[in-house]
Amino acid sequence: MARYATWRAGGQAKQFYSPADREDLVAFLRTLPPQEPLLWLGLGSNLLVRDGGFPGTVIFTRSCLLDLRRMEDGSVLAEAGVACAHVAKFCAEQGLGGAEFLAGIPGTMGGALAMNAGAFGGETWDVVSSVVTVDRLGVERERGAGDFRIGYRQAQGPEGEWFLAAKLRLTAGDTTQSRERIRQLLAQRSATQPTNMPSCGSVFRNPDGDYAARLIENSGLKGRCIGGACVSEKHANFIVNTGAATAADIESLIELVRAEVAARHGVNLSTEVCIVGDKSSVRGEINSG
User: Fold this and answer.
1) Chain segment 91-121, per-residue pLDDT in tens
2) CA 123, CA 279: separation in Å to the nearest integer?
3) Of all helices (H) and strands (E), which one includes residue 253?
4) In CATH, what number does 1-197+284-289 get?
5) CA 118 distance to own-chain centroid
6) Where in the chain are the domains?
7) Where would I find the FAD-binding PCMH-type domain in this sequence (predicted)?
8) Which pTM does this prediction carry?
9) What's 202-272's CATH class?
10) How many Å apart are CA 95 and CA 170, to the nearest integer?
C-alpha cells in the first residue's frame, strides 16, 4: 500500500480492486462477502496502513469515479475520485466562487466528504447540497445534506453506505479573482507546510480553542524522530517520512506526540488520520482487480 499512500509507507492489502467504471464497481460490490472489510482509497492522504497490511479489499476510486461537470441547474457534479484541487480549479473556470479552499485539500472528493475535510477556513460540506451513495448490494441512493450529521472533521450518515459523488452549490464568482485566490492559497500552503516531503497532511485535529501544531511545538517536539518518521520542522502537525519510515515508525511517533502533549498541557489530541490494518506481517499476494 506504500505505492498508494502519500506517507509512502504501509503493508500489503489482501485484495486491491481498480474498477473499470462505475457500473463495474457496482457489480463488484455485489460479489463480495457481507463481512469483507472494505477500504475506499483515493489519493491516499489522511491514511496510514499498518505494516501488517489490510486484511480486506481496497477499492481504488481514483481510477474510475472521475466525472466532473456543470449541471443544467448551475450546480457542479464531482465524483468521489476527482482530486479536490481539480474541483477548485474547475469551479473557478466556470465562474463559480466558494470552492477555492478545496485547492488546499490533498485528497479526493470521496475522502473530503467522509471526513468533512477543510482548509483555509472552508469545509467540504459547506458547499454540498446532495450526494450519491452506494451500499454493499450495489444500490445507489441520492441523499440530501440534511441526511448527515456534520461536524469538525466528521460526517456521519446511514450505516454501510459510501460516497460516489457530490453535488456542489456555489455562488456566482469571477474567474480571475478565483484563480488569484487559489494561487494565494497554494503559495501559503507551500510556505507553511512540508509539501515536498511524504506526509498524510495534518495528523491531529485541533482541540477546541487551540491548535494542535502550537501544542506540539510548545512541547519541544519539532524535529523529533522515530526511525524514518519525524515531526516536521516546518509545521508541527505534520509527520514526514524522511525516506525509510515504516508505518510502525509513524504510529509510534504519533503516540509519542500524544503522550508528550498530554503530559505537558493536559490535552488529549485526537488523530485526524485514519489508521487501519494489522501490526503483524500479512502473507499472501495482492489480488489486483
Assistant:
1) 999 999 999 999 999 999 999 999 999 999 9
2) 33
3) helix 247-265
4) 3.30.465.10
5) 10
6) 1-197+284-289, 202-272
7) 9-173
8) 0.90
9) alpha beta
10) 10
